[in-house]
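Sanity check

After download, print the first record. It should look like this:
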Amino acid sequence: MRTAYRVLSTAVAVGAIFPFGALPAHADTAPVKVEYSSWFWSAQTTGQTVEGYPVPSVPLGPSGVTENQLAVAYKGETETRPDGETWAKSDKETFLMWDIYFVPEGSFVDSFTFSITLDETAQQLYVPQRVEPPAQPAHGGVPPLIACYPSIGFGPGAGEAWAAKPDLDCTDRIEGAWDEATKSYTFNATVQAQDWIDGKDNYGLGIRPATDQQDPFQLVFKGAADVKATIEYTPAEPEEPEEPIVEPDVVLPPVPPTDTSVFVPDTQPVPQPQPQPAPEVRVQEPVQVQPVAASPLKASRGLTPVFWFAMISGVLLIGTASLILGDPLEAATGSRNRIRPNGRHRLTVPAGATARVTPSPRPRTV
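Expected structure tokens:
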């Protein structure tokens, strides 16, 4: 039972570190070749004099460095930096730049180291190590070296003029580890290689004496072809394409209007009053009064003929109407109608006709 519990616990721990279905990324290791190499010498001068004559370059022979070799040297001098710090002034410095452009962008650099090896055929100059009391610092022996960032790029060369040497930023200096068996210095530049992969300008590295060096020395190394550099990196995992999110069609029921008012958010800009044009003043033109002709009625002192004609016509019309409206029976017989005292009409009988008299009814006795 206890064994099964241990197996199950181990499986759960492994599953937490490496989830099922996900494998750790594979790390690649590859050698890196030097793309450019050069060394600079403080005694090397190039240029022209005031008269315009060129200054001859110092030959490589007196430097103690031959072709296809690199060198780092210190003669015991010091210099004051712009920030006020005092450094050991180099006499020779070596610069290297590597071709790491084959590493995919976004990769994680696990390790980048390089080694430079002393050329045993050359004469190495340094003070042998002296035995000092325990309280005193050690002196002599193989001098320490550091690698720093160059401020600008450089080209291939050997024994170049000191004025053309890039300045070095040793804030994040890399201390070389001396290997007595291989007679070489090894530098761990993993941080610097990661910067180059991430897009920082690749100006390589400059190798110089330690800034607090005291004993003079000169070390001569094998050429760039013998510089050993190895990089180990983990390529960036390819990003999986995101699946499009399909949202279901949601049909909402219509919402009856509850209010006819319009909501105006506070962020809506308040309309500004627009400048109105000045009112146009119209001046009415003066009215020309035309004189009215005098009325003919007022101008006449008497009645006109038209008035008299109308008056006579009216009288004649009234007289004619009275004749037409008279009694026609009386006009035809020439007899006259009379009215009895009792208000009844008397019947007029023509001559020769017998008149029939209707007796009056007797009064009724009640």
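If your output differs, re-run the checksum step. Summary of this record's structure: Residues 23-234 form one domain.
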